[in-house]
Amino acid sequence: SPRIGVLALQGAVAEHARALTASGAEVRTVRRPAELDGLDGLVVPGGESTTMARLAAPVRMMEHIREAQHDGLALFGTCAGLILLAREVADPEALAGFPRIGGLDVVARRNGYGSQQDSFTEPLDIVGLEEPLEAVFIRAPVVEEVGAGVQVLAESRGIPVALRAGRILATSFHPELTDDHRLHRLFVEIARDA
Ligand code: GLN
């Protein structure tokens, strides 16, 4: 079965590990660059992108993940993870100059839904899934621009919220917080097709 890591610097690590295990992956938590060795895929979880970027900096974790992605590692970024994968962040000062992974050709705005709407749940139609998926948004980023090579898998209120570009999958919501593991299964399949 595919070997999938969950970046475990901060955030919703255990929930992703559970969903991935239930989806047939062999799962390991990843805190150091050496722990990327031998992985087919890596989940970059939700949490706080600024905290993760700061914790990653001393061991250059973001740069190591970027290199592994170039060498074929599949990536799944959720919420803060999407922010870390985005080509550009619209409010870069929040990241205080700490490196991110990049690689996904989108522009993301942190907390872009604003305080009125900071959390909500919504049934989403997602390309490739037969039934809607109940999506949990928590201080989610807003995807403001999407590059030509990026497929939009789902939109909410006219804003892209699920994206795929080759072996990169990203959602601005939290698919690990429900018992619906269809996106984790999709990611395990992407990682398997190495
Ligand atoms: N607002 C958080 C950030 O900017 C993301 C929130 C989340 O991952 N639930 O990193």
TrEMBL record:
Molecular functions (GO terms): glutaminase activity; pyridoxal 5'-phosphate synthase (glutamine hydrolysing) activity
Chain positions recorded as L-glutamine binding sites: 47-49, 110, 138-139
GO aspect biological process, one term: L-glutamine catabolic process
Domain of life: Bacteria
Reaction catalyzed: aldehydo-D-ribose 5-phosphate + D-glyceraldehyde 3-phosphate + L-glutamine = pyridoxal 5'-phosphate + L-glutamate + phosphate + 3 H2O + H(+); L-glutamine + H2O = L-glutamate + NH4(+)
Coiled coil: none
Annotated active site: 79 (nucleophile), 174 (charge relay system), 176 (charge relay system)
InterPro entries, alphabetized: Class_I_gatase-like, PdxT/SNO, PdxT/SNO_CS
Entry EC number(s): 4.3.3.6, 3.5.1.2
CDD domains per record: GATase1_PB (cd01749)
Pfam family, one: SNO
Keywords on record: Glutamine amidotransferase, Hydrolase, Lyase, Pyridoxal phosphate
GO cellular component assignments: cytosol; glutaminase complex
Pathway assigned to this chain's UniProt record: Cofactor biosynthesis; pyridoxal 5'-phosphate biosynthesis
Function: Catalyzes the hydrolysis of glutamine to glutamate and ammonia as part of the biosynthesis of pyridoxal 5'-phosphate. The resulting ammonia molecule is channeled to the active site of PdxS.
Complex formation: In the presence of PdxS, forms a dodecamer of heterodimers. Only shows activity in the heterodimer.
Family to which this protein belongs: Belongs to the glutaminase PdxT/SNO family.
Protein's recorded name: Pyridoxal 5'-phosphate synthase subunit PdxT
Organism of derivation: Nesterenkonia xinjiangensis
